[in-house]
Amino acid sequence: MPDAADSPERLPPFLVKAVHVDVAQQLMAHHFADAMISIQRFSNSTRSPFSTHIAGSSPAYMLTLALVPFEIASLVVEGSRSFSQRLDAGSAMIRNMQYNVSAYGEDPFDAIYFTLPQEAFDNVSRDLGLKATSLFDEPIRVVERDEALHGLALAAVPALMRPQESNRLFADHLCSAVLLHLLREHGRGLEAEVAQGGLAPWQLRRAKEYLAEHIRFNPSTQDMATSCDLSVAHFSRSFKRSTGMPPHKWLLAHRTQEAKRLLTTTNASLVDIAGACGFADQSHFTRTFTRVTGMPPGRWRALARN
Q: Which of 20, 64, 154, 156 sits most deeply, having the most CB atoms within 10 A of its CB?
């Protein structure tokens, strides 16, 4: 396996790196309003050295979500005495990136990393009508088990495996869920949220029209919220209350329905239908369509025309 240092474009920001890796994946450098968020995965299936280093930087947090158990043999904060830390599958470590933190170990590992600037937490708080606040002030917090964070980490894995097929709406939803959960459960907490109602009829109609108009592209939640004159958090909650599903799932259902229409009313090839409905390529179309309908599009077309 190549040294991660040989592929600087794959390294997460803030000097986080692994010495040897089997997998080094980056889903995106995602703009949540004016804040950049990245989601990455590093893993190594063999026992070999790994290290990370965070040099004190602008206010931000690094969330490490362990997919398998592994031991960090040495953690050093601001040059102080080192200590070890075991992370079990489903546990998490949150590092305040304003401190110099180094880590070293040799265990096989597999983890998802979220880099979360303070601006992202500020944006979420403002969207909820609350005062912006930092997550916490100390260098490190370890969470022994958090089923919600573990589920969010697992949800990121398929998208990291095929970043070219990633849905921006899904990524928006995932990042927002991580930020809100961290603030509510592992930070200073949130006061009662504003009342959660559905979209007004004109807003729901506009949101669906916007998604339909952008079926071939990857629309962002920010753009959809703007079209409805709402904040991102308010729009996402209200859309789900009105439709029973978040925007990215509604778009997937709409793409599948449009694909069914084209399969039954045209002789277009599968690759052309894939492009017309916003799938990355034919294989992406086939996998998604099969997962939703239980059969590949070619077979579905044949049965629908009989």
A: 156
Question: What's the predicted TM-score (pTM) here?
Answer: 0.64
Q: H/E/C letters for each residue in the chain? A: CCEHHHCHHHCCCCCCCCCECCEEEEEEEEEECCEEEEEEEEEECCCCCEEEEECCCCCEEEEEEECCCEEEEEEEECCCCCEEEEECCCCEEEEECCCCEEEEECCCEEEEEEEEEHHHHHHHHHHCCCCCCCCCCCCEEEECCCHHHHHHHHHHHHHHHCHHHCCHHHHHHHHHHHHHHHHHHHCCCCCCCCCCCCCCHHHHHHHHHHHHHCCCCCCCHHHHHHHCCCCHHHHHHHHHHHHCCCHHHHHHHHHHHHHHHHHHHCCCCHHHHHHHCCCCCHHHHHHHHHHHHCCCHHHHHHHHCC
Q: How far is CA 99 from CA 39, 60, 83, 262, in A?
A: 21, 10, 16, 55
Tokens of 286: 């086939």
Half-sphere exposure of 117 (CA within 13 A, CB side): 17
Q: What is the pLDDT of residues 43-55, one digit of tens each?
A: 888 887 777 777 7
